[in-house]
Amino acid sequence: MPALAEWRDFYVMIGTASGAIVGATFVVASLASNIRERMAEGIRGFITPSAVHLASVLVGSAILTAPTLTPLGLALLLGAGGVAGVVYGIVVAFRVRSFKLDLSDTTFYVALPIVAYAAMAAAAFLCRWGAELGFDTLAVSLVVLLIAGMRNAWDMATFMIMRDKK
Hints:
This protein is mainly α. Helices cover 85% and strands 0% of the residues. It is built from 6 helices and no strands. The chain is elongated and about 55 Å long. The N and C termini lie far apart (55 Å).
């Protein structure tokens, strides 16, 4: 797919960034290792999804840099990933519904990931049928997941640091 070849460096870059941030997220998770049950419920609702979103960027980037990828393979892999991400985003929304989240937390932990995964599924469909817009949509969806993951990792790290100071 010639159009995808033009995006190779982009996917290598964001895949590398997401891999590094996944490592940082594991550090945050280790900071949360000795917390009470109510806080543990919150950590499962926030740390795990952030790691999943960052890992999705990493896996998506790996798929998109595969040298023998066909349009059908791209559509199947990224379409399935997008649909699974939307379902997972809805599960996360139910996990965190009992927490009083402000608008920015609701946006970055719930809304943006669901929209990004839906865009990924739509992009997979567009790419399958050769639409140039598909690659742009796919890039935006992965960047949104990367930004949400970075913001959420930082949010969790500062929460853990502030928790220890109280």
